[in-house]
Amino acid sequence: MPTTPPSAAPAPSAAPAIGTARRAAAPAASGPLMAVSGSTLVLAAAPARQEHRARPARPARAPGPYRRLFALPGTRGFTTGNLIARLPMGMFGISAVMMIAGQRGSYALAGAVVAAGLAATAVVAPWTARLVDRHGQARVAVPATLIAVLGSLSLVACVRTGAPDWTLFASYAATATTPNIGGMSRARWTHLLEGEPAAHHTAMSFEQAADELAFMLGPVVAAFLCTTAFPEAGTLAGAALLLTGMLVFTAHRATEPPPTAPVRGKSPLRSLGRLLPLFFILGTMFGSLEITSVAHLGGHGLGALSGPVIALQAAGSCVAGLLYGTLRPRGLPACLAVLAGAMALPWAAAATGSVPALAAALLAAGMATAPVMVTAMSRIHAVIPPGRLNEGMTLAVTAIFAGISVGSATAGSAIDHLGTIAPYALPAAAALLALLSNSSGRRRTRSA
After folding, report:
1. Cβ neighbours of 314 (radius 10 Å)
2. Which of 291, 311, 346, 411 has the smallest set of CB atoms within 10 Å of its CB?
3. Crossing angle for the helix pair 233-251 and 75-86, nearest 10 degrees?
4. Residue-level pLDDT at 299
5. Which residue blocks in 252-354 are alpha helix, DSSP H?
């Protein structure tokens, strides 16, 4: 029977010893390892996989609130249509003014036509919204949009052909049937996110940012088209975008809230209570701030450059709205208190005569606006029955537009008599009044 040579006798005990050393050093090994080849001790490189396996696995990053929001089926589709149809909301007014004034040579006529259209919208829009709640978004919004588009086309034809002035008023009044796309989109989020307050807050913040984006880009796009193409280009493009966006929006039926039967109880007009005056006051703040800024920057000789400076307010609100959607919502009194302080900044900046200071103040004022609007719109969801939510949203928007008209007219009169600095007190006073009215309403509610 063969025996083991004496020179190989240590091998059985040496191999386990080296193996033990390798296992002990493996987790921390960063250099070469020792191995035995026959009776020779050699160096071997450490496997690359050994070091890789020793690293702890990184935890997966949780998706952000907006990513989780748009991961829901159908949300990207109806949001795409929502954004397309929303842009014309900031285009129609300035497009009509530039078209009528350019063809008829009268800004007074142009302003009167647009004002009459806003008045018609204040009457017709809540009824359209009620029909949307009762019969469904697609069944009502598409025919209502077609009527509005035909009104826009009629306005273009009447302006081009030199038709009597009354035809301009009638044509633009027909656009009052335009559905409140923002309200319908918010109603869809409310339907999809029932019982999820955090996600709902994020959705409402996104919708506020979309509003600001539309009213920031809409006038810029309209003015560009009307001046570089032809005077009617802004109105025609707005009509095409509105119809296209509404068809895309309503095509996504899976996310549409179901129609509801007539809801008994208090009407949305009564349910909103002190919220409607609050929205009206906020509207006067918006209107007076915009008109005063236009006049003040025009007095500094900025001309066309005043547009980008004024747009900083909407840009600040857009960015703040998106950021606010990632944070825990605050109470309305706290948001209004911040707004009251921020609206005093443009007044102080205008007094210095510095345009950069005014630009920064408008940006800060805009950033304070978004939390107020998001929180106030969320209050509507708490007091309006789900079956009439779109109607309640439309009433709030109507109150804002009415306030904008009053604020613009008041600021215009103040500018003629007091110059362009003192009227900045109007938006500051409106923000303070909004804070005081909300506080007094809360005290009356507690005492009752």
Report:
1. 26
2. 311
3. 160
4. 81
5. 268-272, 275-299, 306-324, 332-342, 344-352
